[in-house]
Amino acid sequence: MDDALGIALAANLPYTGLRGFDVDARLWRYVPLQLALKERVVPLTLVADELKVAAAHADPDLSALRTHFPNLRIGVVIAPAAEIDAALARVQGPQDA
């Protein structure tokens, strides 16, 4: 079983894959890239007052988001860490060696 799927089942959270997923650039207004990199999260969708984020683990520290956007509900969806890392790498662009 995929580690992410196991995490999702154990935490009773939804699971998604992110292969080829590109983040809507507008969602980075809610999730700063530095926080996303630190917590291994990727913003997925914003519908009404709920922001869904994909995370590599069940309990990312999103307290900064809750402080800045107190009326925003934040839902966590588990995704494979490698796919989160790939989505974050696409946002960062090429890195100098």
Question: What's the short story on this structure?
Answer:
This protein has 97 residues and is an alpha+beta fold. The chain has helices at residues 3-11, 33-39, 63-68, 81-92, and strands at residues 41-47, 50-55, 73-78.
Question: What's the structural blueprint in terms of helices and strands?
Answer:
Elements: H1 3-11, H2 33-39, E1 41-47, E2 50-55, H3 63-68, E3 73-78, H4 81-92
Parallel strand pairs: 2-3
Antiparallel strand pairs: 1-2
Describe the overall structure.
The protein is an alpha+beta fold. The protein has helices spanning 3-11, 33-39, 63-68, 81-92, and strands at 41-47, 50-55, 73-78. The chain has a single domain, classed as Type II secretion system, protein E, N-terminal domain (GMP Synthetase, Chain A, domain 3), CATH 3.30.300. A three-stranded mixed beta sheet has the order 1-2-3. A hairpin with a 2-residue loop joins strand 1 (41-47) and strand 2 (50-55). The radius of gyration is 13 Å and the shape is globular. The relative contact order is 0.25.
The CATH topology is GMP Synthetase, Chain A, domain 3
> Structural class from helices and strands?
alpha+beta
Could you state the CATH homologous superfamily?
Type II secretion system, protein E, N-terminal domain
Quickly give the CATH architecture. Answer: 2-Layer Sandwich
Which residue ranges are poorly predicted, with pLDDT under 50 across at least 5 consecutive positions? none
> Spatial order of the strands in the main sheet?
1-2-3
Number of helical elements: 4
Output the CATH class name. Alpha Beta
Strand content: 15-25%
N-to-C span: 34 Å
Average pLDDT works out at: 92
The counted number of beta strands is 3
Largest sheet: 3 strands, mixed
